[in-house]
Specification:
heterodimer, A: about 725 residues, mainly beta, 6-stranded mixed β-sheet, 41 strands, globular, B: about 210 residues, 9 helices, TPR-like_helical_dom_sf (chain B)
Chain lengths: ~725, ~210
Amino acid sequence: MKTFYTFILFFLSFTVLAQNEISGTVLDEKNKPIAGANIYIDGTYDGATSDENGKFSFSTTTTGNQTLVISFVTYETLSIAIDVANYKNKTVKLRESVNSLDAVIVTAGTFDAGEKARISVLKPLDIVTTAGAMGDIVSALQTLPGTNTVGEDGRLFVRGGEADETQTFVDGIRVAQPYGATTANVPTRGRFSPFLFSGMSFSTGGYSAEYGEALSSVLLLNTQDEMVEEKTDISLMTVGLGLANTQKWGKNSISFNTAYINLEPYQRLIPQNADWNKPFQSLSGEAVYRHDFENGLFKLYAAFDASQFDINQESINSTTKTRVDLNNNNFYLNASYKANLSNHWQLFSGLSYGYGQNKIGLDVNDVENNEHSSHLKMRLKKSFSDRVKLTFGADYFITKFDESFNSNEDFTFKSGYNANIAATYAETDIFFSKKFAGKLGVRLSNNDLLEETVVSPRASLAYKVSKSGQFSLAYGSFTQAPRQDYLKYADYLSSEKADHYILNFLYNKNRKLFRAEAYYKKYSDLVKFDTNVSQFDSQFTNAGSGYAKGFEMLWRDNSTIKNLEYWVSYSYIDTQRDYKNYPTTVTPNFVANHSLSVVSKWWINKLKSQLSITNSFSSGRPYNNPNEANFMASKTKSYNNLSLGWAYLLSQQKILYVSVSNVLATQNVFGYEYANTVNTNGIYERREIRPTADQFFFVGFFWTISDNKKDNQLNNL
Amino acid sequence: MKTIITITAFFVCSMLAAQTQYETGMQKALSLWGEGKPAEATALFERIASAEKTNWLPSYYIGMINAIEAFNPKNREKATALIEKAQNAVDNATLISPNNAEIMVLQAMVYTAVLVQDPMTNGMKYSGLAMEQYYKALAIAPNNPRVVFSKAEFEIGGAKWSGADTKPMCEQIAKSIELFATFKPETAFHPNWGLDRANEALKNCK
């Protein structure tokens, strides 16, 4: 028993003897004291909170080498190895966390949408509640600065670039055919319904070295990482039906979305400018499957789309209309796996396969083309600290295209190509401080068809000038293989090139955002040819060039007036190019010098309704009048479209949605088609190119069935 | 034999010492919180969590304090940092104690905190996430008064917007008050809050 007491005594005295005093001061980077920081020895109760002078002291019963942890909200947590016996009156400096909300971000050229984005210009909801967008992601983006609305085409035209200068990526993997198939002067839509996407980033220039083969712009769409709940959505619309369903089990979830669209009943009721034999109809579906691993996420995205229409197209050069009968089948599959490895490594790998088939009847002739495209991608990211990250990876693009033209006189012409592009890139993200950050990257790519290798450097910097304002600068060199229409006849061409220089200012406070951007873009090696249209016997060269410069402004306010959100965007562009078969350097016909969009959404609680109004205005676009001496020297009248949308909550899960585009019935003219030859009076006659219909009316009923009675499809309208 | 006794005594002593230290720590931290010192309380809970690596309660309270702070309009600028802190604490607590209905209720509160930051953007997604937690919690602990009450309270919040009938939710709140009367927390430090709020909510029902 004696021994027992001895032991206890020994331990007690040992404890008393081993009391070590720990003390010091916690300061920030500017040597100002931090009050309220938590200082403790890891794995023990021993610790203290710093006082208003940043001072702390406490005693500990531990001995030897220990880990001292110092933490404070919005600062980086510090762990230091200390010897408890002599850690007295030391000074500890905490660095502000660059992950905090008010840290600088590199934003030049980019619009982010979605909750993960720190500065979200557009919300996922906006795509669908913007009047006139009709659930089309591309139409919603056309209300942002830097884009030109080209009503007869429907695709994205960015900063004086052609529509195919924008590449679309789903979960980081390229989509070779992002738009529905169409014919001249019938606008298309993006293939992707907003239903399955949670985040979006739209870059109008100066983007990361991770993305290549795009001269002007990239659109990055991300499928949802997690599904919130099981539910079924039913849509009944004047133009068709839709059904969506989500299932969850264990670590898996699957969502699918399918739609049948048929414009025939609608077009019987509402007069059309175009002469349809068979209006547009399509059956489409998308599905996302997700599986969570302990440290990773696997996603499989698949989409198919079968569409057809039959139209008689007018032409000034022919007294009879040309019948275009188009059948398009499209399939896209994309699989990706993302994993967090040890030591702050992150792995991403994925692949896609896309198949597009068009069968086009042109009067008595027909064209059939097939495109197989694939993208393999691998990316590794290492975070050395919160402040330094390195990303590198490799891409492999495979494209196989073939086309056959069959005339009724037994004449067949076949064309096509196989192209393989291998690319590798490296990029580093550095925070020099919470106010100053940069991104530096380089991309190397090799195209085996064109037998060329190009190096594209990219750089951007951002500096925060005040609590809410920051400047960014970006430079990048971009290349893209010539488009399909040229490559199928001429594989001796080389890639087209563009250099971007961007200066951006961003101000963001209390859910109000102001963004101004000025840019200069220089094009070189653009493809030229010497015939009326590009054809098998054209002589192609890379002798074209061009430039685009301009400035853009965006003001978005979500907070000044309760329940009202609105944004105003304005773009000015000055651009000229000498490409295609242009005789000289001029502004191309898809560019309007001034574009202005005003979008507003007003939630009226009493009526349980959301009212949305969008007005899009563009100044006149150039067109070529062969009766005049100068090429492309005339301009159309300006374009205006005022659209209204009204969503009414019948009950929490049932919504009635009504929308009308071009309420004022403005007679918009996109351009003119001129005759190839003069008439008897020596004048080239012309025909207006107008929308296929001046107005579009839409009525839909959307019903959600889920356990969570608050959920509805306001997201998807 | 002597050695065994000595060793046993040593362990008993050190365990007792640790227990007391835990109890003093928890009491002190809870009273700091009660005195309106959330930062100090969080700091102390963090120290307790660092020593008690298998106890979910310190992390639970870190999550609770920071979630509540995130709701305070005064903390608007810091809200994201507070929510992040709360979410990390919930993650830690869940690792220690999976399938814990109390932590699920807390997780739903953290989601609600995200929701109120920008209801127009976050509303749909985070109300779904919060409801999912309430349903899971209800399946595990159908008679936990906090689960019953918090779910009903959250649903009333949504009903105000949609104009749905709140009568069934009010009945649930009344039921939760009965459950509170018989609820016994495992220890003095286990969650035992909610009766006052439930009484208050029931008043607003009438």
